Amino acid sequence: MEIDQARTTQLGELIDRHNRYQSDVGAQSGEPALDQNRSIDPEGRYVLFVGICTHLGCVPIGGGAGDFNGWFCPCHAAHFDTSGRTRKGPAPYNLYIPRYEWNGETIVTMIDPTQGRPMSDEQLESVIYGKPLED
Ligand code: FES
What we know:
By secondary structure, the chain is α+β, with helices and mostly antiparallel strands. Helix content is 15%, strand content 20%. It has helices at 2-8, 35-38, 121-129; strands at residues 61-65, 69-73, 78-81, 86-88, 100-102, 108-112, 117-118. The chain binds FE2/S2 (inorganic) cluster (FES). The site of FE2/S2 (inorganic) cluster has 12 residues, from loops.
């Protein structure tokens, strides 16, 4: 049901019609924000995006929250759908998509957007847990 909802959403229903990538904050990639362009796999079972609200940077609540059964940011009431697209409220952009590579099964490799290569374990830990990186 969630996949069907995401896949049948038309671009005209979206506030932000473009995919945006973590490395290009604020820029439009030109790629339409269709679920097919946001999912990791062709079937649309997996999506990966940065859980930081594009309004002022709070952390949206997941698990089917909000009016679109996706994520909801309670700070100022931004609603995101199951594909991480902003649908209602003050968030101007869809949730950013990080750079990654997928092995076609279960392994996702996060890519350092500044270097264009896989993140080290230390970088990944920093991203996941918010620990400061040391030089
Ligand atoms: Fe999320 Fe304002 S920070 S709605």
